[in-house]
């Protein structure tokens, strides 16, 4: 081992011996290193598998190969057959769907015969008229009915007739449209009204389209580029006004000159030239509904709505017009074209209702020769995909093509109407493709499923065929797994030699080394296994016990997770040290740690190694608790350990049975436990046997004999030693102040139970302990601030970066006026719960320092009270944190489905919304921090007498509580905390809600105001009575939660304020003692009318019965704190019972200590007064000892009570008068000194007898009776131990030759 691993020692022999011990332990390290379980398991598996023969293995492989080949072949055939069948089915279905689409597409021209026939009817009517038979003055009777039928048959959206009006007949046309022939308009409106198709247009669009709204027919007009109607002038060669329209819209389309529209002008030119029908190009508009300001969009939407019989939007699909010529005659060669019949058609309408409902996902690309437009047909519906080609390129091979049919439209005439696409601007055709949806419907995973099913059948056949082999293999696997698991467990629990023995037994039980192994394995007697004990005597061992002093009381104020955090963190460090020092860890029981050296392998310097390990553990204890105090709270760093070591023979082995483990037995173990239990906090106590081994190892200077003897049960009186081994590098002796004194500690909890109450007199300056309190409180509040910031971010709350968040009470108002019966909690927000855990919120360092500064300022504002001080505020905060963490927090992360959401909502209501609001947690911690700020240590009634102005301001209600609250907010509102407030609150609403919560909580700590107490009891009764609470809030669950949450928050702070009564007995005793001291101090100062000692015992019993126990029961009744409510109630009942039994004795003990303290104070006062008098009266007469002369002895005449001449020596260190050092080893008697009023025998006892005090009459210079004690260490006469902490002066005795100041001081 390298030398640098051991720290520096002044004695090189110590270093070498320690290294030698470590080296020897390393050589024998086989007993400490746990066996590689995986390697051992592998060896067992190889041993078992070696039993199989090569022939069986080959046969198994051959059968498996044949069956696998058969499985693959059959499965592949089934897959291919099924896959080809699906492909064929897809092709058939696709072809059928495509054929239907093509059929519908090609049938469009045939359907247009109904429209053309309407033109034939108009021409026929014109030829049959007797008057006004000349074109263009012709109107078709019953036009709306006829045109409606034509639209229904053809699928067109609209039909219109536009007459060709020469310029010479412009005025006549105007007279015609305003004459009797316009009666068709009213007839059309009436007919459409009966059908319910008149109300699909937007009134503003109607009004905008008219020039003369009051006329039946407007003047001939056209629309400019903005959609405004413009009157037509008689300057054109001819006009093309629209006359009869179906359906007839209220928008001004009648008498519109269509010649200005490109589609109509091209159609007119084509028809006049070729006398054939004309197919127009795509017509599209912006998608929208009938309210659109775009005339085309509004018209298309209105036409679609009329066809559907309900308001539907226009989706941007393409429309087109088919224009048919209307002739004045049927057969004449010179017939003239006198009008144009126009049909407006929606392409989408021809792709609807042509496929079965289950045929989905056929894409149709419509190509006009200039542009393309895509549709997807899903059953009866055709969905618009938009301009362009929207199909999957991978389906190009399935394309189906169809052209627009060119030919004759049958309209009832002999020749019909010809459509000549050669001279049209558009050459329509369609391309059809399958979509992914359509393809996947027929190309499923059924072949794969069927293939896997086939494989599964073959696998099952393989399993049946190889059943016997499978069963044998299964049994062998079970045995192998059990052996593997046993190996892993044994490796983690037992040393190597014990493991090997256990594994040997395991192999024998498995029958591995038997000729008939299977039979032996089945017939092994469990009784024979259990009758073979594993035990061994180790003659030279050292056993170590360590126990955390004060752990039980400390753990009663913490959460279970914090308790295990301490134990796990500490004992894991001990385990690392044990591995380094080659110490065998035996076990941990509760907070007790047990280890040993000298076993399972002998170690030469087992005592030296174990004591060095113990010292390291002591140092590690200090380091770990200091590090964890910020996390685990105040008092963690104050924990210490008692350690005990004893050396001797040990019996070690495995006690078979349930949960068997390696254990140590014997007197050595018991004695080591006694060494620990009777030791001092922070010390390592060793027995005389261990001390002897240390002396033999040259470590006698490590040993410090314990002054008193240890009385061990069953062993009598034992002489023990304290040990201080060499330090290891990297550690210092800065922790030595934590070590206990040489006197023994009463019990496990003395560090808390016997805490000196006079520490409260030290105040709250920035001591190391106070700084730790500030650090812990800062971290606690900082954690809540981070949660608040993260919560706001998850909810997307916009923070106010400009507000200073300052609040002042209105004039004449107090905090009491701000108290509300109900505080609104945050509502359940699913987004906040479903949101994944956000990255840690980073708080700027200057904000953290600002928060720390605020907590430090609060600490400085606390007074030097025994009870109502900063330490108690931290204790209350710790209880608040514990209760808040016990509330079940609902969560639906990471599966935010409906069931989890319902559960989270249920838990939100169950906890009344408290756990979902980080602001509430911060407000509770803040309130517990400041609730006793600037407390005077007196009751509110006394405070009203001493501070009448304050009482007047606060209206004699909760004076101390209101003052604390107002003082805290005055501190928080200072400009230096402006940035801190902005980070904490975020919004003004949050700030005001925080203020409201804090005021309610702080004022709830006034439990002695009868009126306020009655109101709180009434609110509790209403809140947790289902009927009363529902009536009060209108039976709204959120409001019920707010009422109950308000009451629960008040009871959290009330329970935390007196939580010491519901915690471990030593915690209760500590704070109960401090409260009694505080009240007694107030009584002695005339600030309390009755001495608390006269009523304390009965008062505490009544306090438990009337307040503490009912309060603990309420915590349980509200049902949100889990097992904490049971824990609080259990501790309250136990503390009440124990105080009822021991309370009077405890009160009397405190009273006696107070009297002793009073004597000390009087002596100090007398000393001060005497010194002042002596300084004044004997300035020039008394002789003082020069400071330089105090380092040596000086002589004076022998006093008359000494039998022989002797020197009296003034020692320099304590400046006291002592008997010569040579005479202190024996007893000697002397007569009563002349300054004592009665005879007395003064005896200087031997060193062993000097432990007790003896009494003598009170000297005349002492004002009150007191005990004089001969101290053991220097055999000097001192004032009682309680008074020895400071000096006291008295006049010079008459046996001194010159005036002198004799002084008794501490050592």
UniProtKB/TrEMBL annotation:
SUPFAM superfamilies: HD-domain/PDEase-like, Nucleotide cyclase. GO terms for molecular function: 3',5'-cyclic-nucleotide phosphodiesterase activity; adenylate cyclase activity; guanylate cyclase activity; nucleotide binding; peptide receptor activity. The chain crosses the membrane at residues 63-81, 448-468. InterPro entries: A/G_cyclase, Cyclic_nucleotide_synthase, Nucleotide_cyclase, PDEase_catalytic_dom, PDEase_catalytic_dom_sf. It comes from the Eukaryota. Residues 777-1078 form the PDEase domain. It is found in: Membrane. Keywords: Lyase, Membrane, Nucleotide-binding, Receptor, Transmembrane, Transmembrane helix. Its main location: membrane. GO terms for biological process: intracellular signal transduction; receptor guanylyl cyclase signaling pathway. This is Receptor-type guanylate cyclase gcy. It comes from Seminavis robusta.
């Amino acid at each position: 081992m390298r030398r640098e691993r051991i720290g520096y020692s002044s004695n090189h022999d110590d270093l070498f011996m320690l290294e030698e011990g470590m080296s020897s332990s390393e050589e024998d390290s086989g007993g400490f290193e746990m066996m590689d379980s995986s390697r051992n398991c592998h060896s067992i598996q190889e041993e078992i598998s070696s039993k199989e023969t090569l022939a069986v293995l080959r046969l198994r492989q051959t059968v498996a190969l044949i069956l696998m080949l058969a499985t693959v072949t059959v499965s592949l055939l089934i897959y291919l057959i099924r896959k080809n069948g699906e492909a064929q089915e897809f092709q058939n279905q696709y072809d059928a769907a495509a054929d239907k689409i093509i059929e519908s597409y090609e049938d469009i021209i045939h359907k247009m015969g109904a429209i053309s026939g309407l033109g034939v009817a108009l021409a026929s009517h014109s030829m049959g008229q007797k008057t006004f038979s000349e074109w263009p003055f012709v109107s078709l009777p019953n036009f709306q009915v006829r045109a409606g039928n034509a639209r229904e048959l053809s699928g067109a959206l609209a039909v219109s007739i536009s007459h060709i009006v020469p310029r010479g007949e412009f005025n006549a046309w105007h007279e015609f449209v305003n004459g009797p022939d316009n009666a068709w308009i009213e007839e059309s409106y009436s007919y459409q009204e009966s059908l319910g198709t008149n109300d699909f247009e937007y009134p503003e669009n109607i009004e905008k389209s008219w020039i003369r709204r009051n006329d039946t027919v407007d003047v001939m007009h056209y629309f400019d580029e903005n959609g405004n109607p413009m009157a037509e002038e008689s300057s054109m060669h001819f006009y093309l006004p629209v006359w009869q329209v179906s359906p007839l819209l209220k928008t001004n389309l009648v008498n519109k000159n269509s010649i200005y529209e490109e589609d109509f002008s091209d159609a007119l030119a084509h028809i006049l030239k070729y006398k054939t029908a004309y197919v127009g190009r795509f017509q599209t508009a912006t998608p929208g509904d009938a309210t659109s300001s775009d005339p085309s969009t509004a018209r298309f939407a209105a036409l679609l709505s009329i066809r559907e019989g309900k308001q539907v939007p226009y989706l941007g699909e393409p429309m087109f017009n088919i224009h048919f010529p209307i002739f004045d005659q049927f057969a004449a060669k010179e017939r003239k074209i006198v009008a144009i019949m126009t049909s407006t058609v929606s392409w989408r309408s021809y792709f609807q209702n042509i496929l079965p409902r289950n045929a989905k996902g056929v894409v149709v690309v419509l190509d006009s020769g200039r542009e393309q437009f895509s549709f997807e047909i899903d059953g009866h519906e055709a969905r618009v995909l938009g301009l362009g080609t929207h199909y999957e390129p991978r389906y190009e091979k399935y394309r189906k093509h169809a052209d627009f049919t060119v030919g004759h439209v049958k309209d009832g005439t002999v020749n019909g109407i010809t459509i000549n696409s050669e001279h049209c601007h558009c050459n329509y055709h369609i391309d059809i493709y399958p979509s992914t949806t359509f393809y996947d419907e027929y190309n499923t995973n059924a072949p794969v499923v069927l293939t896997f099913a086939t494989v599964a059948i073959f696998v099952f056949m393989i399993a049946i065929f190889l059943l016997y082999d499978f069963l044998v293999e299964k049994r062998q696997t079970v045995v192998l797994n059990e052996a593997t698991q046993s190996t892993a467990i044994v490796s983690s629990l037992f040393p190597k030699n014990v493991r090997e023995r256990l594994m040997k037994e395991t192999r024998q039980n498995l029958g591995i080394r038997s000729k008939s192994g299977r039979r032996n394995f089945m017939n092994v007697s469990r009784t024979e296994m259990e009758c073979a004990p594993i035990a061994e005597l180790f003659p030279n061992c050292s056993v170590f016990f360590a126990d955390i002093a004060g752990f039980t009381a400390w753990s009663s104020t913490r959460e279970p997770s914090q308790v295990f955090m301490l134990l796990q963190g500490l004992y894991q460090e001990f385990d690392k040290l044990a591995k380094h020092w080659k110490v065998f860890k035996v076990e941990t029981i509760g907070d007790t740690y047990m280890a040993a050296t000298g076993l399972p392998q002998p170690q030469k310097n087992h005592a030296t190694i174990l004591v060095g390990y113990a010292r390291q553990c002591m140092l590690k204890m200090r380091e770990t608790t200091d590090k964890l105090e910020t996390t685990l709270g105040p008092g963690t760093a104050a924990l210490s350990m008692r350690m005990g070591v004893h050396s001797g023979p040990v019996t070690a082995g495995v006690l078979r049975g349930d949960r068997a483990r390696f254990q140590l037995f014997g007197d050595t173990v018991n004695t080591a436990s006694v060494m620990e239990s009777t030791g001092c906090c922070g010390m390592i106590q060793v027995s005389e046997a261990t001390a002897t081994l240390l002396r033999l190892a040259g470590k006698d200077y490590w040993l410090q004999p314990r002054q008193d003897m240890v009385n061990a049960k069953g062993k009598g009186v034992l002489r023990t030693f304290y040990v201080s081994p060499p330090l290891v590098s990297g550690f210092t002796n800065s922790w030595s102040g934590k070590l206990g004194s040489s006197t023994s500690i009463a019990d496990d909890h003395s560090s808390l139970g016997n805490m000196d109450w006079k520490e409260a007199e030290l105040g709250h300056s920035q001591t190391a302990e106070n700084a730790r309190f500030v650090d812990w409180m800062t971290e606690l509040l900082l954690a809540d601030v981070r949660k608040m910031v993260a919560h706001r971010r998850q909810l997307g709350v916009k923070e106010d970066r400009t507000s200073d968040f300052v609040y002042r009470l209105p004039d004449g108002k107090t905090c009491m006026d701000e108290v509300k019966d109900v505080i609104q909690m945050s509502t359940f927000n699913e987004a906040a719960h479903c949101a994944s855990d956000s990255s840690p919120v980073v708080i700027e360092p200057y904000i953290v320092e600002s928060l720390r500064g605020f907590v430090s300022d609060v600490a400085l504002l606390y007074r030097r009270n025994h009870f109502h001080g900063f330490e108690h505020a931290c204790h209350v905060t710790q209880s608040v944190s514990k209760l808040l963490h016990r509330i079940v927090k609902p969560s639906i992360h990471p599966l935010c489905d409906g069931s989890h959401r319902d559960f989270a909502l249920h838990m939100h209501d169950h906890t009344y919304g408290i756990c979902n609001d980080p602001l509430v947690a911060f407000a509770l911690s803040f309130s517990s921090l400041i609730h006793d700020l600037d407390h005077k240590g007196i009751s509110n009634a006394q405070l009203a007498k001493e501070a009448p102005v304050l009482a007047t301001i606060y209206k004699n209600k909760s004076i101390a509580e209101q003052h604390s609250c107002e003082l805290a907010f005055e501190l928080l509102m200072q400009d230096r905390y402006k940035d801190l407030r902005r980070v904490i609150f975020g919004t003004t609403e949050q700030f005001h809600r925080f203020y409201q919560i804090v005021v309610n909580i702080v004022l709830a700590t006034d439990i002695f105001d009868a009126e306020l107490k009655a109101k709180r009891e009434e609110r509790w009764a209403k809140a947790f009575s289902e009927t009363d609470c529902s009536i009060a809030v209108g039976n709204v669950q959120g409001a019920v939660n707010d009422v109950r949450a308000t009451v629960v928050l008040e009871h959290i702070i009330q329970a935390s304020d007196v939580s010491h009564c519901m915690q471990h007995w030593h915690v209760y005793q500590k704070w109960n003692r401090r409260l009694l001291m505080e009240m007694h101090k107030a009584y002695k100062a005339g600030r309390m009318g009755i001495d608390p000692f006269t009523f304390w015992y009965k008062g505490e019993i009544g306090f438990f019965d009337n307040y503490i126990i009912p309060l603990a029961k309420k915590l349980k009744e509200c049902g949100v704190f889990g097992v904490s409510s049971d824990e609080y109630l259990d501790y309250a009942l136990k503390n009440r019972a124990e105080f009822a039994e021991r309370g009077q004795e405890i009160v009397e003990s405190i009273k006696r200590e107070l009297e002793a303290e009073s004597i000390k104070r009087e002596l100090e006062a007398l000393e001060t007064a005497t010194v002042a008098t002596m300084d004044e009266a004997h300035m020039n007469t008394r002789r003082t000892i020069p400071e330089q002369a105090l380092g040596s002895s000086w002589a004076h005449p022998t006093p008359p009570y000494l039998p022989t001449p002797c020197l009296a020596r003034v020692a320099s260190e304590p400046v006291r008068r002592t008997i010569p050092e040579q005479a202190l080893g024996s007893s000697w008697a002397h007569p009563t000194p002349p300054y004592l009023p009665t005879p007395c025998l003064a005896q200087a006892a031997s060193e062993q007898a000097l432990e007790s005090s003896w009494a003598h009459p009170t000297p005349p210079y002492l004002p009150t009776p007191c005990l004089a004690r001969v101290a053991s260490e220097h055999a000097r006469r001192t004032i009682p131990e309680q008074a020895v902490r400071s000096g006291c002066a008295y006049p010079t005795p008459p046996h001194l030759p010159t005036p002198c100041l004799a002084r008794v001081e501490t050592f």
